[in-house]
Structures are given as structure tokens and as C-alpha cells.
């Protein structure tokens, strides 16, 4: 038995290690096919701290608490019990073998048995959870495992289960051997002694042969797993145990003290050879420079590492507003398809000559000719899926291994717009308005100050056609960035007026740019038109430099995000605050005092709040708007089930505001239904895009009788103003 165990174990270990090393080399070669990218190695200390927190602390996994806890025990067991594999090799040669120094150390033995039992229970529970949530029937697509390769997940899970059972069996047999030597102690076998008692009567030779056999089985299970994953480099459910570490370390932003660190907020500019494109000198670029991603090798090496790392857990899919409203977009399936395509095409890209390429299998040659985006029957990515994305960031927020789905989708959109001129026809009007009038509604810029005409005080203006006697920014505390919606959209104008009134009441001096303001470029950038974004952003950058503006307050979550996170790419550093943050500060300082007399329209009203994606997930602003609503006297605050990091998108982001929803159900109606079901009389938000979408959703629900006519959508600032002004609307 011993000789057989030694020969079989060493043979499979040799094969496994050789294949494992070869596959790692191949994976590195594939990842290196990606384009260079900068900014992935800054703050190495903080990146390392983030890596430790996210792996050992499981901070990303614990967003789903019970699954996160179970996975923690399994992961720690997988890492911490590696020495049990080393011990198994030693036991092939000597059944009494124990690791030098630590082998019989009581602390080591306790830790080993605790990790084994918790790992066993953890993996068993995860198997049960997977079985309970398997896709089935007409509702199958709503399982987060829909589209995942189940056999791979089960194989990995049962491998871990088998390893844990082998460790327990070995400990049981070790106790039996120790009893023959008079060395059996419950202190050294704290959680297996009761199993060991069952074999103390076995003869020593049987116990030794049992150890040889179980050690061999443990080694066979472990190295069969290694061989299996070595033959399948796209088996992310297994490979993430190795690739997640670098993927987390190289994430776009390491964690920050304010709880940030997700690869959200700013979109990166179009990069060529690791440097952003200079649109002012675009003629100097090489002819083959890619504007966005048109081929899989146009992704950065970090993008290819992302695809390699996907665990197919489906958390992103479960939170995606497009997928949950019957659209073809699943962030998980996008990443899986790109991974399969990258590794299937890799032999062609890695071939050293045309002759080598001609000899490649038909499957590889077919992959080389496959378009990246187009009709789902011929392309890697369905064009309808590409344009269904709202860029809400729920996928990135939920991903336990920090995959940057939104970046990949936006880079593919850029290529479709700038090179292929292939995009939804509705975007023609958006692009025309942005290019000709500086706003997505194609309104005359001269009307940017119309919102201020009926205010009982003067709004100071600088830039553009400002009056000669207006103040300079040196004389005011804030530049109030009104935004296109706040200037032109009737519902958003009320928010602009409310904020202006509140700032005036609080004695906060501010000025606006009037017709000197133009769109920040967010809709252009999120729809893939980087060229128009750069035009608008550079125009605004010049205005900021001329006026010397530094402190900016914005009512639009999209403007807030772009000014705060993206204008620094143009050399403009701004201190940007959202209006809910500023108003909350003013209330705390006593400069604004909410009151509620008997005739207040808010008395006895229930208010719920919708988190704008670009305020919440993209910038971690969750508390300020809620604190404002909770302090309004006479009103009751009610939270929606999906809130904060798990808030459901309104459907307007990613330039979807200007595109028709032709597939599935409407995202805004889905979210409005949730808001109405709280029993709220007022649905509050902090973004004009969200307000438009929720208002339209509410109108639809009131039309079919599923929502009360008295329910209204309003900005947080309006509700605060109604309270501050003693119920006056």
C-alpha cells in the first residue's frame, strides 16, 4: 500500500505542478497582450493595506453577510491548511510524520482542526445555497448563477469538501496511532478525539495503511484539481484564488479613508500606449491608434486580468438594473464572453509568424475574425447589451474581486461611436445639442438664467453675458454650478431655485456663470463620444481658469461627479460639494432651521429617498441627504428595501436619459414601484436626472391606478425649503 501511494502521489504531483506552471506562463502571456496603463502602482503601501483588508477582512464579500462569513472560513481554510498537504507527502513515507517544530505544537493543532471543521461546514453550506438558487423555470434568469458554468463551481466546491474530509480522516487515524504509543491526548486532538476513539482498537498496521491511503487520496484530489484548472485557463471560479490578489492590488483606486476606493467616479480618458490622447494634436497619432476598444487586445492588461479573475458568482448580475428589467446586458456574461474570446484568440495573437497562424485550428481562426460588438449570433458582445448599460456602477460595487465592468463597457462604446459610427439613433440629437448649443436639450444658451427671473433677490453672475456691475468670485464663497437640467428642465429648475433661496436665507454668498456655463460633458463621455466631451470640458476648464473658481456647489449628481473627479484630468482642481452636503452643513451650523407649523404641507407625510448612482455608489455620499430628510419636523422617513450601495438605478445614467427603452420593462417604473410600495407621499432625490425618470415612472403608475395621485417627486432641497419657510411652497 505504501509503495503504491508514494508512486501514484508523486506522479500526479509532478504532472500537476508542470501543467500548473505552464498554464500560469500562458495566462501571463495573454494578459501582457493588453495595452499599457498608468496609475496602477501608485500608493503601494495603501494598495497593500487594501489587499489585506479585502482578502483577509473579506470587506467586499461581506456585503452579502452570511455568504461572506461562510466564504471567509472556506478561504482561510484553503490558505491556512496548505501545510496539511505538505504533511500528507511526509506521511506517505512515514505514517508517524509530523512537520518539524510546529507539527505537534498544540496551537498549530488547534488552528488546524478549527479551520478544518469551519471550512467543512462553510463549504457544505455554500453547496446548499448554490443548489437552492440554481436557475430554473421562467424565473431562472433572475438567479445570480444564470449563465455561470455550474459544473466548474461544483467541482471546486466538492474538491474543497473532499480535502476537508481527508484532513479529518487523517487526524482520526493519527489519534489512533498516538493511542498505541500512549501519546493520545484530547488537548492535541481537540475536535477529532471523539472520532479517534472509534479506531483506537485497530491494529497499528491497519492505521498506518489507512494513513497511506488517505494521504494519497488527499494528494490525488488536490493535484487532480490543479491539473483540471491547468487545462482550462478560463476557469475563473478556481483561478480567482490566485488572480484575485494582483487584481485587487492593481485596482484603479486603492481604498481611501472616506470609504472610497472603487473603480468608479471618474472614467479614464482614451489611452494610447499608456498615455491619454491629446485631442488638440490628434493628427500626430499613429494611423493604427485605437479610439476605444474595437478588438480584445485593445483592452489594457488590467482589463484582461479582470476577465481572467471573474469568479462567475453573479453578484454583479443580480444587482444590474438592465438585467433585472429583461435587457440582454449581464455584466457577468460580458466579462465571461470577453474572457473566452481573449483566450480563444490568444494563440493567433501570440503566434510568431503568418505561417504559424495558418496552421492554427479553425476555432482559433474563427475567433480572430469575430467582431467584438454586433449582432449576438456573430459578435462577442451583443450591441443591445452594450447600449443597455446605465453606468450605475452596481456591478463594480458588488464585485468581490474588483473587476471594472463599467470601464470595459465605456471603452467599447467609444470605439463604436468614434470609429464605427454605430450607436442608437436617439444619440444624434444629444450630440447635436451638445456640439451646437452646449446642452443636451439643444436649448438656446441665452436662456440659462431664466430660472432666476422670479426670485425675490438678485443672483450674482460672472462670465458670459454677465452684467458689468456683477461681483467677481473673490467676493463670493461658492460658484453655483447650475447645470443644463437645472437651467432648462422645468422640474429641475425648481430645485435650482430652492437651493438658491436656501443659500440666500443662510447668508451664503454665491455666483453663477449664466450663459458662460456649458455642459460638463458627462452625457457625451458616457455615450462614448470622448471627442465632444473633451471639447466641452476644455471650454469649461478655460472658464474655471479665467474666473479662478475653486469652491463649487452642484445640484446635479452627474455634474458633481464630472467636475469633482474628471476635470483634474484637464489640469483643473476643484473643491466640489453636492448641494445636499452643503445644506446639511448649514443646518448643523444653525444657519437653516427646519420647522413645521400646523399648516405645513409636510405634516404627517411619509418621505422616502432614492440614491442617485453618481452621488451614492460613485462618490459615497449617502448620509447627508438622509440626515436632511430625517430632521424635517412632522414628516416620517421610510427607507426603500434597495438603498445605499444596493440602490436600484433610475435608468438615466450612461446617457440612457436620451435613449428609448425598447427591450424589457422600464427601469424607472421598476424603481418607482419600489418607492410607492413604501407608502411614501413624497419621493425625494438629489439629482435632476433621477427626478425626471422617477416623475415619469410615477406618472405611468398613476395613469394605471397603481399609485395615488397625491404622491409627488421632489428634490431634497425643495422639501427642506418648504420646512424652512414654514410650509410655504
Structure description:
With 729 residues, the chain is mainly alpha-helical. Helix content is 50%, strand content 6%. The strands form 4 sheets. The protein has a 5-stranded parallel β-sheet with strand order 5-7-6-8-9. A 4-stranded parallel β-sheet has the order 11-10-12-13, with helices on both faces. Strands 1-2 form a two-stranded antiparallel sheet. 48% of the residues are buried. The model has no long low-confidence stretch (mean pLDDT 93).
Topology:
Layout lengths: L1 H30 L12 H12 L9 H16 L1 H12 L12 H27 L17 H31 L12 H4 L7 H27 L5 H14 L21 E2 L2 E2 L24 H9 L5 H5 L11 H20 L3 H5 L3 H8 L3 E2 L6 E2 H6 L5 H5 L6 H14 L8 H11 L22 E2 L16 E4 L1 H6 L1 H17 L3 E3 L9 H5 L3 H18 L3 E4 L2 H9 L9 E4 H10 L16 E5 L13 H8 L4 E4 L28 H10 L5 E4 L2 H16 L8 E4 H9 L5
Helix pairs in contact: 1-8, 3-5, 4-8, 5-6, 6-8, 9-10, 10-12, 12-14, 20-28, 24-25, 26-27
Question: Which features characterize this protein?
Answer:
729 residues, mainly alpha, five-stranded parallel β-sheet, 13 strands, 50% helix
> What is the 3D form?
globular
DSSP strand count: 13
Instruction: Provide the spatial order of strands within the biggest beta sheet.
Output: 5-7-6-8-9
* Number of helical regions: 28
Measured by DSSP, the beta-strand proportion falls in 5-15%
Largest sheet descriptor: 5 strands, parallel
Instruction: Determine the N-to-C terminus distance.
Output: 88 Å
Helix content: 40-55%
Overall mean pLDDT stands at: 93
Counting helices, strands and paired strands, the structural category is mainly alpha
Radius of gyration: 30 Å
Contiguous runs where pLDDT drops below 50 for at least 5 residues: none
